[in-house]
Amino acid sequence: VGKIVESLAALSLFLLSGPAVIILNKHIMKDHHFHFPIVLSSLGQLLMLLITRGSVALGLHELETKQMEWGRYLRVVLLMNVFNFGTQVLGMWSYMFVSVPEIQVLKSVTVVLTMIFAAILVKEPVTALLAASVLVIASGSAVSAVFENDTTRISSAAGAQVIGVVICILGSSLEAAKTVCSQILMDSLKVFDGLYWSSPAFMALTVICVAAIEAKDLVHHPFSGELVGLLVLNSVLTGLIVFSSFWFVKLVGALAVKVVTQARTVGIILISVFFFQESCSSMTYIGYAISLVGIGMFDHVKQRQQEQKKKQEETPDKKTTS
């Protein structure tokens, strides 16, 4: 019961924080002309760094993993943060070229890549039906992407559209790799310890890239009270995303997280269409209906796997008793 409650809490936080920060960042970049994706993507990590490092320094929390070997740090933690950094920056950058609905449909390739990486790197079992469900999810999203007819893009130029698509696909590849690396890291660490060890590497990459790319224009950007407030809100929401992602990956694994993300996408699109004047064609909705069928298939397969696992665990117990 305790694990079910914990999973529901992590799921709720994951589902609510993601859509909120996506719409917020779209507003910040489009309406406040804050075209600094590296800064935007790093504020949540900065908050997690201050909370985890500050808690340990003040004696409010004691680490279970007090030391980490350099080899493991470089192979898992640093590599995960390189992937994560690329994911966040490319994700923010894509808002300047394509609409929120189209970004979400293009990111559907992430679930397929995550399945492949998880099978190769962490030996996650992949049955024919599981692979079929993932392909149905991706196919539905591909239909949405092909027939997406957005009229509110920041730029309607074909060149800008191509750039946006390439950025989204590259970001999806990095996100899949990051999610699987997170699972490898979180298999042996508590959530707090994982954040404690991973956030400094992310911030080091941020400082280097901001100094090289964004600092010159950033210092001349006008910061209104409203913009500062939105940036603070961004740091809280993205911090919650970082925390809930680590937490949820630890509980259910990388592939399940990506499938839940696809389900969450439907909510993001509906919100952006009804409240932010984004547009979608009828084929986009048909594509997402197909994706939802795939999500239902995936859930069915996972439930069967859990039932089989329980039976296998109960069988040795019965033999021992007899």
UniProtKB/TrEMBL annotation:
Which Pfam families does the entry mention? TPT (PF03151)
Top-level taxon in the UniProt lineage: Eukaryota
Q: Name one GO cellular component term.
A: membrane
Transmembrane segment boundaries: 7-28, 34-52, 73-97, 103-122, 129-147, 153-174, 195-215, 227-248, 255-276, 282-301
- Looking at the record, the residues that make up the Sugar phosphate transporter domain are 21-297
Topology of the protein relative to the lipid bilayer? Multi-pass membrane protein
Which keywords fit this entry according to its UniProt record? Membrane, Transmembrane, Transmembrane helix
Localization recorded for this chain is: Membrane
Q: Enumerate the PANTHER family for this protein.
A: SOLUTE CARRIER FAMILY 35 (PTHR11132)
| Name of this chain's protein | Sugar phosphate transporter domain-containing protein
Taxonomy, top ranks, is: Eukaryota, Sar, Alveolata, Dinophyceae, Gonyaulacales
